[in-house]
């Protein structure tokens, strides 16, 4: 294996190890976000995109080169030469095996490189989503607490209004009883006034009759006295 393919193979092993570490279930996305927020990553962030696309281009070139080698040694001409000379047959199959091996190494390296970028992005997004959800949960808890407080205040206000209504109803009942009592007293007073007016009218009629009787008796007395005076003369 040449130096470049040895480097690609070690790069593939490193990608496999990194992806396995990123997929460990007991390491949460928040912890990975803390790891990704280290200063070294902030320092490397301006070069990260350039490095990422550069590795993609290198791996694509190596993949195309390996694919070309596979097409070269799997064609009809090398196979015809291999049939003529047994030594050439072994050499061609060795070259074809190396080309296929290099094709798989470069292809999987390119694939895992894209997967690793996507996994890191998803971990950051999940961490941000968890932080936002935690903030929303806190806001929702405070809103629920405020709603419960308002509900309790409303219940207390309703209870106070009911108590005031009961007190007002009791006062109104007392006032109604007092009004009825006063109305009864007023009716009794009016009856007494009517009775006194009737008695006064009766006394007036009696006094008028007595005056008339007095006048009649006075006239008779005068008449009798006049008659006695005439007899004396």
UniProtKB/TrEMBL annotation:
GO terms for cellular component: endoplasmic reticulum membrane. The keyword Transmembrane applies. Residues 172-227 form a coiled coil. One of its GO terms (biological process) is apoptotic process. Keywords: Apoptosis, Coiled coil, Endoplasmic reticulum, ER-Golgi transport, Membrane, Protein transport, Receptor, Transmembrane, Transmembrane helix, Transport. It is found in: Endoplasmic reticulum membrane. Residues 178-233 form the Bap31/Bap29 cytoplasmic coiled-coil domain. The chain crosses the membrane at residues 7-27, 47-67, 103-120. Residues 1-133 form the BAP29/BAP31 transmembrane domain. It is a multi-pass membrane protein. The keyword Transport applies. Belongs to the BCAP29/BCAP31 family. May play a role in anterograde transport of membrane proteins from the endoplasmic reticulum to the Golgi. This is Endoplasmic reticulum transmembrane protein. It comes from Scophthalmus maximus. The gene is bcap29.
